[in-house]
Prior knowledge:
Elements: E1 5-9, H1 13-25, E2 29-33, H2 36-46, E3 50-53, H3 62-71, E4 80-84, H4 89-98, E5 102-105, H5 110-122, H6 138-166, H7 172-186, E6 191-197, E7 201-208, E8 212-213, H8 214-226, E9 235-241, E10 244-245, E11 257-261, E12 268-273, H9 277-313, H10 323-340, E13 344-351, H11 354-361, H12 363-380, E14 386-391, E15 394-400, H13 404-420, E16 422-424, E17 430-432, E18 435-441, H14 451-467, E19 473-474
Parallel strand pairs: 1-2, 1-3, 3-4, 4-5, 7-9, 8-10, 18-19
Antiparallel strand pairs: 6-7, 6-12, 11-12, 13-15, 13-18, 14-15, 16-17
Helix pairs in contact: 2-3, 2-6, 6-7, 6-9, 7-9, 11-12, 12-13
Amino acid sequence: MSAPRVLVVDDSDFTRTLLVRTLERAGFEVLTASDGAEGAVLALRECPAVVVTDLEMPIMDGYQLLRLLKSDPACHDLPVVILTSHGEAPSRFWGLHTGADAYLTKDYDAQELVTTVMRLAARQPGASHPATDAPQGPMDVLARVARQLDANLLQATLANTILEHGMGVSELHDACQKCLATIGDVVDAPLLAVGLSEPETVVLHLVVTQSLPLRVVERSAEAVLGAVPINPGATIDAQITGTSEEIEGDLELPDLVFLPLPLTSTPTMLAVLPRNLHQFESVSRHLVQGLLPHLAVVLDNARLTQRLQELSSHDSLTRLLNHRAVHERLREELTRSIRFDRPLAVILCDLDLFKRVNDTHGHLAGDAVLRAAALSFRSTLRASDIIGRYGGEEFLIVLAETDMEAARQAAERLRSVLAKQVIPLPAGGTVCISASFGVASRGEVPAPSSADSLVSLADNRLYQAKAAGRNCVRP
């Protein structure tokens, strides 16, 4: 078995001679270069087991050599030891940050160098093959460096664009839209998507950049949702932008490329539907993978900012608006209703005999009932209706563009849905519950009406419903 080869790169004849003697005595075969450019040629052509390099050298210094070797796929995993007279902390930090596997100063103990090189050489699985496009001389190396600088500049520009556009966004879907738009500028992909799994919600944001058959878009959305875990009972928060069209007949569905995104404690996937898979793998994949950490930072920031905003305005148990937020929305809608003389109604709902559920089954059961009621409200009412937990087991619903009769019918639908619902309890078993409703419209209160007076009228009618035997709507 041949001895491992070590490449020594140093512009000092004395230092090279000393290092060659030390490493050959330890059983290594040693190659030498007098500057970084010559060292890059030998490293790419000869594929040594370890490179030992100085920092200050002519033509190409040790940092530049290190960046070139670590950025080139042919020798990305090649261990590099910096051996220099610079012992300052900034030099050590930058050398290790740039990719060096070890950093030694020239007052080193010879055995320490030998031990370090042996340890790094042992990590190499075996002799590697020279790069097919290995440089033939220093000018080839400089051209290679120039290409790498261009690639790094493109990567940095795209990363900066993603951070600049995305870090000021506080809504997750907006952040996804901006990030995917940036990636779409450099990747020929008619469809891009992000799938993100939270404990109670799965977020899907899909962007169609070029017109696609509707079936392709639908299948792609299903595939992205299938690529992230979905907890039982989790809701799907999906947003799809772009154009799609119905096409008759069978379609060959192209393959999506999935790239995991490193978000904090949240399984997340970036999906790309490339127009040409081979071109994507050979040209674009490395570029996109370099952007993934920056994309993750933006989405994490938007996700956490959105969560903080929701915590300040939403009830943590039911995920409906809290008392303050729903009252603010009522005042806004009431002002608009008065200004444009449009109808507005409110519904105040109270779960019947809720205390009995807590006393009989425990507070966890009561929480399950409140969550089930909130889910029924969201699924039964319009998307434009405003729903909030007003306090305890009371809920306030604001219905814009709705007259008294339409509001009464909406309350009756809610009453019927709740009365028929069988709610499973955390400890086993089920429970049924009903609710009473009070309904009021803006036209019933004196002008200029206030939010408090409208809620007060609905509250009076709620008490009438309770007095009438519960499980009913008043008026």
